[in-house]
Amino acid sequence: MGEKVNQFDDIYLDLAPELGLLRLAQSGLGWKARRGEGLFTVRDADLKRTTWLRAARNFQLRIQLRDGRIVKFDGFQRDDFEKLKDIIKTNYGLQLETKEMSVKGWNWGETDFSNGNLVFSVQNKEMFEIPLNEVTNTSLTAKHEVMIELGGPDGEGGARDKNRKGDQLVEMRFYVPGQANQEGEGEEESNANVSYQDSKLYVFYNSIKNEADIGDAAPGDGIVLFSDTLCLTPRGRYDIDMFPAFLRLRGKTTDYKISYTSIIKLFLLPKPDDVHVLFVIGLDPPLRQGQTRYPFLVFQFVREEEIDVSLNLDDETIATKYEGKLEKKYESRTYEVVSTLFKTLTGRRVTIPSEIFKSYHNQSAIKCSMKANEGVLYPLDKSFLFIPKPPTFIPHSEIGSVTFSRVGGNAASASRTFDLKFNMKSGVDYSFSSINREEYTNLNEFLQNKKIKTKTMEDESTGRYVEMVEDSDSEEDTGKRKRKSVVQDFGGGDDDEGESSPDEDFVADESESDVAEEFDENVSDSGGSNASDASDDGSDDERPAKKSKK
């Protein structure tokens, strides 16, 4: 009852973002977050070693437990050292050791794996350490380079990582030259595989995978393995190894571990070539390869390809955990088996093409280009999706309007293709070009059915919206007539803008003769000026003079 308790305020536990209170008593120590339910306690008998060192958040008390775990408390001030040293010696009979850190700023040194951390040292002094439980992925990005990714929402750590504020280190790269086993002539062997297996790079790469618990599952140990699957984005062939809580993508130089909780969307879409089927996986956060982010993975399967696989699950697990939604053995088309397993393991609905939209060739998508990238655009029930590169997801609810361009009604200048632009409510625009002209009617009807506002641009040479041409009465009337002709050519409704006063100068039947007159070799400069004057004056007595020149 009379046990003395010493307290330190504003202390962090490990990498937690919350401040808390650290209390030390003879029976042990405890940390409690100021807000929330964060609580951590340690008995005095479990303490093995204590160390004081400089850290990013002022000074750190590092405690090694008898089971090998390391507990870190950050936020101490320099003046707290003497007080904390006396408390630890009195209560636990331990010495508070001091550890000097390297502050040279060198970016080369030695690495070691100790107590669940990757330690980087310079001249036998620790410079920094990386908790390996924060490593979510590692891959070989160059001949002598290893990349590690940090802080992803992997498993139970996802909720904690999403709550962190401020900047966070997400990637590091290590350059590892040389051979692990220097044996003289051994380095001159012609067998490149042997040299690679013996390199320091490969040893370092495997050590990270093993220590960080991201290479714990060997190929074939999961529920099912789909080998040599073609991925369009990111490009390459991968083995998809599916486990109860995550999947692994194994490529030649990359190995990704993706938690099912980070999969937020699934799409199963037939390709317009009637040969392939695309399976699209939406990720949050995206998959990262260096500086490139991939929010969508696009896999391609041959439509008629079939697979015969057996799941590494017993009947009881299928009946209880998966509620009978899986089968012990599958003999079906590959894309059907893959989509069924993803749907069951992730708990996400698989989006299929809309029944409302069909292209001119009775397909579920239209071919188009996004900048210099060719692909297909799928009008879905609640969104548009462009794939394969770059995969672009456009929800209907975020579309402000859709603009069609190069769909003029003049048959002489009509193009075989038209352009489409999505004007988003956020101010961002998505433009698609080279769409077959025959797709206009079906696409426009789909947008009208979804109650998405559409508008058509004037002739591409002006680059102005028809509704915005208001320079003069004659221009406004001409613009309305052009818009009406567009609607008539593509099956639109009547012009509901109302009647305007007739313009005696505008004669639709004579427009073609006037244009031909400008390119007539017999037309003189003075005749051209007289023609323009006649148009400006609006008098009828000048028109016979023009026609007599033919």
UniProtKB/TrEMBL annotation:
Q: Where is the composition biased (Basic and acidic residues)?
A: 541-550
Q: Which GO terms describe its biological process?
A: DNA repair; DNA replication
UniProt feature, compositional bias: Acidic residues: 492-523
**Keyword list, A-Z:** Chromosome, DNA damage, DNA repair, DNA replication, Nucleus, Transcription, Transcription regulation
One GO cellular component term noted in the UniProt record for this chain: FACT complex
Indicate whether DNA damage appears among the record's keywords. Answer: yes
Q: Which InterPro entries match?
A: PH-like_dom_sf (IPR011993), RTT106/SPT16-like_middle_dom (IPR013719), RTT106/SSRP1_HistChap/FACT (IPR050454), SSRP1-like_PH1 (IPR048993), SSRP1/POB3 (IPR000969), SSRP1/POB3_N (IPR035417), SSRP1_DD (IPR024954), SSRP1_sf (IPR038167)
Please list the residue ranges annotated as the Histone chaperone RTT106/FACT complex subunit SPT16-like middle domain: 363-457
Q: Which GO terms describe its molecular function?
A: DNA binding; histone binding; nucleosome binding
SUPFAM superfamilies in the record: PH domain-like
Q: One Pfam match, by short name?
A: PH1_SSRP1-like
Q: Where is this region: Disordered?
A: 455-550
The compartments listed are: Nucleus; Chromosome
Low complexity biased stretches: 524-533
Q: Which family does it belong to?
A: Belongs to the SSRP1 family.
Protein name per the record: FACT complex subunit POB3
The species this protein belongs to is Linnemannia elongata AG-77
